[in-house]
Design goal:
Radius of gyration: 14 Å
InterPro entries: NTF2-like_dom_sf, YchJ-like, YchJ-like_M
Protein name: UPF0225 protein DDE18_17165
Order of helices and strands: HHHEEEE
Structural class: alpha+beta
Number of strands: 4
Low-confidence stretches: 1-6
Distance between the termini: 31 Å
Family: Belongs to the UPF0225 family.
CATH architecture: Roll
Largest sheet: 4 strands, antiparallel
């Protein structure tokens, strides 16, 4: 069962906008609407990782670059997201996390593409 089935939809969204989950990434995760921008998609993917919504991560990854298994490591706890830049089809961010080995961070410039009218994640580096 996904984490969203066990948390309040009114709690703050993990993506860091300050909005309630149900007013932010929740509708995207449920398929009620699609991300309007690459930044919104990246934020919703971060929230999906934080909440264990691997189906959403899979659906929003370009099929050409998507791995067979996108299941997040259950020992990783995503703690904070910083968006550094969002220009055109790229978003640069730092995602902070904790594991049993201690805190860490993922710094990435992600690329997105619009496919069949919806933004999808292509790759990052």
């Amino acid at each position: 069962m996904s984490e969203t089935g066990r948390v309040s939809l009114q709690r703050s969204c993990p993506c860091g906008t300050g909005l309630a989950y149900d007013a932010c990434c929740g509708p995207l995760h449920r398929g009620a609407r699609a991300a309007a921008t690459p930044e919104e998609l990246m934020r919703s993917r971060y929230s999906a990782y934080a909440l264990g919504e691997s189906g959403y991560v899979f659906r929003t990854w370009h099929p050409r670059t998507r791995p067979d298994d996108v299941t997040p490591d259950p020992s990783t706890r995503w703690t904070r997201l910083e968006v550094l830049d969002a220009t055109g089809d790229e978003v640069e961010f730092v995602a902070h996390f904790e594991t049993s080995a201690g805190p860490g961070r993922l710094h990435e410039r992600s690329r997105f593409d619009k496919r069949a009218g919806r933004w999808v994640y292509v790759d990052g580096g």
